[in-house]
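thought: user wants a sequence for this fold. calling inverse folding tool.
action: design(structure=
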């Protein structure tokens, strides 16, 4: 990713439990804040989403877009397929076990480019807001689900 914003948070749960919440797109509107609607358009042989349509309202960035996802054990990456407002959107969640896997460090990286002219510092601020809210929402969601000890991802 070229110019991007990155942030991390530690969640009191095993990586598999965190990844299970990340993979549950239907529930994104319940915990992300910015995602108002999520629809899985296609899934891979492993049952995980390959393409997802998201309706996003992140203040300066409001959009209806489709993302393509690539999954590995402790990482998920996404890239923009189509959008009304965005030229590009690339991101990732990277999970690293902490304390023998009892906790997880989640690193979220995001690069967004909009079709309309927008100052770089405004784009970075919007990315930072999206990341911080997503990480806080993810932490709250995972830690409140009762699956902190582990879940199949």
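)
observation: tool returned 153 residues.
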């Amino acid at each position: 990713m070229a110019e991007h914003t990155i942030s991390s948070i530690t969640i009191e749960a095993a990586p598999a439990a965190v990844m299970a919440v990340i993979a549950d797109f239907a529930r994104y509107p319940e915990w992300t804040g910015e995602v108002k609607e999520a629809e899985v358009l296609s899934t891979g042989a492993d049952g995980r989403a390959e393409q997802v349509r998201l309706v996003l309202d992140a203040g300066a960035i409001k959009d209806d877009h489709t993302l393509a996802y690539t999954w590995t054990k402790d990482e998920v990456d996404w890239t923009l397929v189509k959008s009304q407002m965005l030229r590009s959107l690339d991101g990732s969640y990277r999970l690293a076990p902490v304390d023998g896997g009892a906790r997880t460090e989640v690193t979220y990286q995001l690069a967004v480019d909009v079709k309309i002219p927008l100052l770089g510092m405004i784009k970075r601020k919007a990315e930072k807001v999206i990341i911080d809210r997503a990480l806080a929402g993810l932490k709250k969601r995972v830690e409140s689900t009762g699956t902190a000890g582990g879940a199949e991802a």
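thought: summarizing for user.
answer: Here is the designed sequence. The mean pLDDT is 86.
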